Amino acid sequence: MEKSDLPVEAPSVLKQSSYQNIKGFDCVDLENGNDHNRLGNATSDKESKGESVAISESTKLDGQDIAISIPPMMPLSSLSLSLPSSPSGLHIGQTKLVVYPEKCRNTNQNNPTNQNPQISRQKQFRSQPILVVEGTKRKLVRSETMRDSRFDPFKTWSGKLERQISNLRGMPTEEEALEAGETKRHETEEAPGVDRYFDALEGPELDTLRATEVSVLPEDEKWPFLLRFPVNAFGMCLGVSSQAILWKTLNTSPVMSFLHISPIPNLILWWASLVLMVFVSFLYLLKIVFYLEAVKREYHHPVRANFFFAPWIACLFLSLGVPPSIAANLQPIIWYILMAPLFIFELKIYGQWMSGGHRRLSKVANPSNHLSIIGNFIGALLGANMGLKEGPIFFFAVGLAHYMVLFVTLYQRLPTNATLPKELHPVFFLFVAPPSVACMAWAKIQGEFDHGAKILYFIALFLYMSLAVRVNFFRGFRFSLSWWAYTFPMTGASIATIKYTTAVTNIMTRSLSLCLSAISTFTVSTLLVYTIIHAFVLQDLFPNDISIAITKKKPKFSKMLAQFRSSSSDSKDFDYSISKGLEF
Amino acid sequence: METKNQNQNKKPHQVNKETSRLSLLTKFHAGYFRISFALCGQALLWKTLRELSTNARVLRPFLLLLPSTAFILLWSLACISLLMLCLLYIARCLTRFESVRAEFRHHVGMNYLYAPWIAGLLLLQSAPFIGPHNVLYIFLWWVLTLPIIALDIKIYGQWFTRGKKFLSMVANPTSHLSVIANLVAARAAAEMGGKEAALCLFSVGMVHYIVLFVTLYQRFLGSDSLPFMLKPVFFLFFAAPSMASLAWRSIVSSFDTSCKMLFFLSLFLFASLVSRPTLFKKSMRRFSVAWWAYSFPLTALALAATEYAQEVTSEIPNLLMLILTVLSVTVTLILMLFTAIRMNDLLPHDDPFACCLILHRSRK
Questions:
Q1: Of A539, B8, B119, B137, which is most buried with the most CB atoms under 10 A?
Q2: Which pLDDT tens digit goes with each residue over B21-40?
């Protein structure tokens, strides 16, 4: 699949590189010779054998477009990476995935129109085709189910996506029949190891592709909606449902009665969050059904894995925020039903921390891990609200022990831990969440807001303050859906403050609770406006989910590139040597 | 280095002859105290069960199966095994002092030096004829606890002062033994009325437990130095909070919320470990003395469950207590059976601390 963007004029030193001249280069199965297409030849050559050779478009030396010539017929699709010769840091957008579709019975004979000329600003050079990546791309492109790689089940599901992609590539659909044989050569159906995620991605949420990495799926076309729908979307449910709890507390708490808040906001918000929850869950279920491979990759992503706790936490929030007019007391069975999957998830994740291996905590610790801890405290709070005794203590104990471990690890900022951003980012607000929820849970378990609860509350307050005074540093970040998940700590802190005010009532605590509630409401409404703008006006609420589309193996070419880079310092010489190399 | 090369050159048939000549004392190491550990723990469990209040109706038919003679037998077996192992170890100290020093330097071996004292304290607590306020009890307590304190000072000091032995480097699940030693001593002290001593040992144990817990969960690279044969020691993860729960219960004389929290934590860790059978697969291929490491933690958990069931009298705690007790007894019996059948496998074929010895010699 070629990309045609960047309508930039090429500098003058660009030569057309035609790798067909090089025997064995970029060609896996070369049946015809490479004696055509000398450098600078404009016309395409047709093989006497009837196979067509794809053309290399001529380029004038004076900065016209460079086209990627399609090498002669190969039974396999090969993938070449084109990388600019300059340091990757400067040209992050330049790395592109270029796929050369070559088929024996290719009808791409001499039709430059079919090829989208690759336009680049700089010299690009291509690597040996990497079949493996192509294979995995195929696998990703096809929506996966749990069945093994037989061709026919793929095809039934893959119809949608394959049709899109083959249309763009201008390929005949019969190529798919040929691809069948290659499915055998695919790697096993495993997601990339956690090391790959750290190598390939960067950023505090590990969602930006590094410059030296390539995505397995095309980057500049819109992927199918379900594939773009991340598990972070549950963050929206978290944000809205925690607001429902806040307004319920404002309504029912005696110390805040001076505000005369009616139960209406709670009712509206609760229904809204319920509807949202159902909607998001339904969409994600669809994603599981149709794109299981993508879901698996999300599960193995070190940051996203924690968001798999979010649905259950959102359900717990819904139970906590139930308006009194709907249900005064919930049945304890609901608690057991909600906590069971949480318990199983925790066994898995904490066990991974404990038994070491690739997912040891010192390596994968990041602020999103707080999401896995919070579920414990919220479950304890809900259980204590329902009147249960032992279950809440159980989850509180487990949550507290693991929270200590996580807290220490994150505070240490170990050098092996790469995901904490150097600059501030909204993800840091997740630090505030566990102590504030824990303090509420402990107060409920003990029956009163005792010293333990106060200690936890003050810790939460301190963390909140230390982040709030740095609010200037939070500007200038790209909006993303996961920001919703970061609003609920603020709301949690506000609710904890209200509970604290119930115990210690004076003008300061009242004003503090008022202030914090106002801040959290304001933040959520701003975020709502942003979300609506991005969803309907800008239409980019769900960008391509690059972080799940990383390759399973590091592209080999980057090693070559690194070597070249280290060996030659002058870029001109570099270009020249490359072109020299490519000529032969 | 020369000795190492020589040893390597001697690889083929000569080594076999040499290993068979290696005496019992060389192959023996402090890890064998796991056996007496387990047996003493069992004795304590049986004693506790017999003294249970009659609220535990579920357990009554089970209790009738434990006549007091069986308990006395078990206690005597535990006592004899401990004495034998102690004698063997003393003999090893006298004749192979270098090996003992090498063992002490090893990051796993050094924790097992606590084992005899822990076993002794457990035996003391479960003794059928010595009451906790007996003078003999107090005297024996001091005799057994002073070495623990001495080892504490040495090993805990090493954790944060000595270069090669920083905790981040040497931490492994057997380090829990030092914590368990403190907690067992604290419990014994609380039983005999020494509240201050109990509190002191408890706080020392808990503080180091918190540090150890965090460190082990972080799993620094380079700290994965536990050979797969020793994977059963992972069970010590949940032995420590169980013992802490028991110790705190003895100190405050009731199973309050903190005890419950510690008990639940150990229950969670237990569930977490048994749901990962692949972790133990490799070590289960051959019988070795490391298998005995399964027994004591289960016993400690069963003991804590017993105390919990006495506090919270409802069906689920009783059921929990029953299940855990049965599990612990069964596992110990199976281990005793295996030991009787496969005596040969019990002793390793080579000197487990040979590498440390060689390094030590080469440094001279």
A1: B119
A2: 456 777 777 788 888 889 99
CA A513, A515, A517, A519 dihedral sign is negative
Q: Are A426 and A477 in contact (CB under 8 A)?
A: yes
Residue B138 token pair: 């107090």
Mean pLDDT of A202-207: 68
**Residue A10 — φ and ψ, nearest 5°?**
-85, 145
For residue A114, the tally of other CB atoms under 10 A from its CB is 18
Instruction: Indicate whether A159 pLDDT > 50.
Output: no
A36 pLDDT band, cuts 50/70/90, is: very low
Q: How far is A307 from chain B (nearest CA, A)?
A: 21
Q: What is the chain B residue with the closest CA to A392? A: B261
**Of A149-153, A579-583, B5-9, B133-137, highest mean pLDDT:** B133-137
Residue A395: closest C-alpha in chain B:
B264
d(CA A346, CA A257): 39
What one-letter code names the amino acid at B137? Y
Contact B237 A354 (CB under 8 A): yes
pLDDT at position B1 over 60: no
pTM above 0.90, yes or no: no
Q: Which residue of B has its CA nearest to A364?
A: B218
Q: Kindly determine whether residue A355 and residue B224, on different chains, have CB atoms separated by under 8 Å.
A: no
CA dihedral A534, A536, A540, A543 (to 10 degrees): 110
pLDDT higher than 80, residue B246: yes
Are the beta carbons of B260 and A397 separated by less than 8 Å? yes
For residues A564 and A88, give the distance between their C-alpha atoms in angstroms, rounded to a whole number.
Answer: 13
- The rounded distance, in Å, linking the Cα atoms of A483 and A239 is 9
Provide, as residue numbers in chain B, all residues whose Cβ is less than 8 Å from the Cβ of A396: 261
Token reading at B211 = 């540090």
Phi, psi for residue A96 in degrees, rounded to 5: -135, 155
**Under DSSP, is residue B53 helix (H, G, I), strand (E, B) or coil?**
coil
